[in-house]
Write a sequence for this structure.
């Protein structure tokens, strides 16, 4: 990983820790939230079902005070011809989510984005979900199998 990414991650971790620790010390109850959206192959356009998920998240967050929101974009192993293209697409996916959240009333100053390229396949309980997606030829079946890797993860902390 490059130094800039490490600095950004370290900064985010420090901010998140300060917010959570201060809320715990003051006795305030806060809440962690998480949402995930999927993307079609090679696209950054939000799908209708994912807009519905984001609308639910937005409605919930409008009743709270979001302190920090991190949006992380991902791609599958076939998207982009180079590491730079993969990173750019994953960053564009994260930005598309941020743009949607801001357009629907959330404060941009609390939302941070980053792209992870294809370095972090989808996992569930420590097991890679797409590990069974074998092959090196881009077939429709393989592209469909890798759908969970084409995602953006939205998480953060909000206060009542």
């Amino acid at each position: 990983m490059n130094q800039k990414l490490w600095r950004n991650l370290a900064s985010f971790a420090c901010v998140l820790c300060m917010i959570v620790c201060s809320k715990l010390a003051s006795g305030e109850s806060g809440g962690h939230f998480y949402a995930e959206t999927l993307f079609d192959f090679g696209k950054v356009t939000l799908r209708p079902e994912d807009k519905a998920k984001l609308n639910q998240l937005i409605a919930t967050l409008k009743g709270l005070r979001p302190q920090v929101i991190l949006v992380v974009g991902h791609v599958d192993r076939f998207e982009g011809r180079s590491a730079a293209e993969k990173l750019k697409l994953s960053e564009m996916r994260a930005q598309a989510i941020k743009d949607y959240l801001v357009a629907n009333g959330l404060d941009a100053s609390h939302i941070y984005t980053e792209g992870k390229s294809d370095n972090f396949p989808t996992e569930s309980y420590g097991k890679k979900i797409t590990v069974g997606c074998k092959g090196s030829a881009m077939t429709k079946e393989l592209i469909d199998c890798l759908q969970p890797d084409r995602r953006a993860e939205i998480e953060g902390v909000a206060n009542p």
In short: The mean pLDDT is 81.
